[in-house]
Amino acid sequence: MALARHRELLRKLEIVVLAVVIVGLFALFGFAISRAVTADVTRCASPPASDSPIGVELAVVSLAGFGLGRLLALARKWTNQAPPVADIDTVRTGGPLQGALAGFLIMAAVLLAYQTYALAHTAQAPPITEYVRCAAVHYPALTAVAAAAVSLLLGNWLWYPTR
Amino acid sequence: MPAPTALVSLSRASLTNPAPPPEWAGSSRVRRFIVLRGSVHQLPQRPQRLRPSGGQAVREHPIRLGRWFLAVLLAGWLTIALWCFSQIRGGVEPVGAISVAVSAAATHAVALLALVATLNFVAWLRRGDYLWVLPTDFGGVWPDWLVPIALVLGVVTGRLFWH
Question: Which of A22, A27, A86, A127 is the most buried (most CB within 10 A)?
Fold first, then answer.
């Protein structure tokens, strides 16, 4: 197959794409945090108007990103000629990447813990949901880009082919 | 990728040194010698716990904690479910109680994964044994499609109750 001759190029392309997505996400979240610091997110406690299409649009974008993440995972598996996950009985991830994964999971656990606390004590702390609603209302295009990028990475990671 | 140092050392040693005594065979105390520029150096006694696999070094001897991990995960989820049930029976709005419970359940799962990832990262730093919490054989079940099914169910449920 002609593509098989270009595996090395595709590997480089894979790294570039993932790096662009991750760096772009950091930039978007940096912008979001800088805006959220001075914003009053409690105004976004109520969901958008029922006739607003933004919720459905973001859901579609997220699902599409998740599906695209699966396709990306299939492509990465083929490019790297990785063995099926079910046949792997050893840790093949490099140490720095393991550290990054641990850091990401710790951050996710802390954010989820905050979300749980905020849902139980809405008066004391606004849930993350309200930040997302504010972002969707004021910056729908940027929110869609962030949702697609996050969903792409999640689909690539969680929906990686097992065979 | 170059072969692991220990492997190179052993292969070089096998060219220049006699085979180790039979009583050392298969033992972690097998002495390893390295021959560089005519001099003989003894490597540390501690085994490297690395073996080559697919062009890279991977650690051996995983500590399999799958059942313990599952037990702790399910115990946490059961506790959260009982708390949620007691809240609803006590008159709390079901949607609110379930929101908190689901968020707490996700926090519990991600926190456990973060703990395992952190321990594995520390194990990589210390060249120790890593933890293995997932089975490599899912008993013929193809878990790939569980992910999108869960995703669609989540979106539909969210649309119905949390809009």
Answer: A127
